[in-house]
């Protein structure tokens, strides 16, 4: 029977290997082909335009994450910066979370519950996205969760090692993303009130005293890293505060993103299971549940009061409160695991084994009801684009109307029909996914894409590209300078597509690309295709070096 077999160590180890393997597959899927897009460019833009002091002394209007930007700049000026360097830390944190987070909650979750939690983390679209995204969210989720759980154990069991782990994780999380400090601040406040109670009621003041020492040291360390940029550049914060408010739709969509589904029965089932899980956790350790409820409520209240820009967007809200997501998944796991235990206690081991299978089927249904079946269909080099992350109901998403209005130019069908292994070099482009239709085009033509950078050929440096005259050694595998292509010739079968018009009226203006087109005509002859919208050069890899 499944129930009995799960109690055996080999069976449980095999189950964990399957969970971990599937989670790793989701996180590594076509990762080497992904094109840096949207907020992933914040750190690159900042390191190319600022020195170390300027980076340290500003949080930035675009939230570049100070420690990551400093690290990337140091690499770019020493050994060289490549995409895998930028993805390594989020990816490592995201992969580790599959195993580490369930282990952190071992004091409250049983073996089967921890396995279910690991499975939910493994297939969580939001956590998979954070793992693949060159932003600090995967790191802050892991570091922030470690901090608040270790603080709980330290308060109840003591230990200098736990105090050090809390302080280090809390400070790093706050430096990576300052709003992470809201969770650790709320956690310290919780135990501060508990310490005050001990002092007033029991006349035991030492618990509060040691908490003040730990909290004070952590606060000083956070201030040493965060006060200089806040005081040096207060406008970067002022420009983003008092801008937007969440509404009830934001909360509904945030729940769907957290659970990893959208607008279907799985979301309601998940809500019911989370309710059962909360009831079970209340029975086991009500103060731990209240501890988490306090932190989540305090963080949400502060965020609402700050009214940060774009907070009405559910994706922004879940990013700012991402440390809470593993707890939501833990409640769902506890609720799902309660079904087999309840059934087994009333109807025997066979019924319990059937309930185990049903719980596993719910996890699989969770996966199928999420975005992955569509997102990971065919070749997709833009999985991190906001169009796929703001709403997992792609038909309902605000991007649907935007992208559905885009007509695929017929020339793309002609390029896809060409025999051979061709790739498309798109130029110019917008790093903001809401400004470009390139991702939409690829869903149809299914050819690999690179970005052709026009900087240094028909313009000075522009956003979303590397600075051709900069002193940084940066290599982006899916980007190529068009000027290099002119000098070196094609190294494979490539179509170079120049877009003469903006894809959308709201798209920002880009430099004039006609000089680039003329340079390609001088080098490679007449274009393969030319219209008012696109100019396409067909560059076979066997073309002559000078007179292709």
Walk me through this protein's architecture.
Helices cover 61% and strands 6% of the residues. It is mainly alpha-helical. The strands form 2 sheets. Strands 5-3-2-6-8-7 form a 6-stranded mixed β-sheet. The protein has a two-stranded parallel sheet with strand order 1-4. A hairpin with a 3-residue loop joins β7 (529-530) and β8 (534-539). α2 runs parallel beside α7. The protein is globular and about 85 Å long. The protein starts with a helix and ends in a 9-residue tail after the last strand.
Percent range for β-strand residues:
5-15%
Oligomer: single chain
Main sheet characteristics? 6 strands, mixed
Helix content: 55-70%
Given helix and strand content, the structural type is: mainly alpha
Secondary structure tally: strands: 8
Cα end-to-end separation: 69 Å
In short:
With 548 residues, this protein is mainly α. It has 24 helices and 8 strands.
Task: Please describe the topology of this protein.
Layout: H1 2-6, H2 9-28, H3 41-49, H4 52-56, H5 66-76, E1 81-82, H6 83-104, H7 111-123, H8 125-132, H9 137-157, H10 160-176, H11 181-202, H12 206-232, H13 235-238, H14 248-259, H15 265-306, H16 314-320, H17 325-347, H18 349-368, H19 372-375, H20 398-404, H21 410-417, E2 423-427, H22 438-445, E3 449-453, E4 474-475, E5 479-481, H23 482-488, E6 494-499, H24 514-524, E7 529-530, E8 534-539
Parallel strand pairs: 1-4, 2-3, 2-6, 3-5
Antiparallel strand pairs: 6-8, 7-8
Helix pairs in contact: 2-6, 2-7, 2-8, 3-5, 6-7, 6-8, 6-9, 7-17, 7-18, 9-10, 9-11, 10-12, 11-12, 11-15, 14-16, 15-17, 17-18
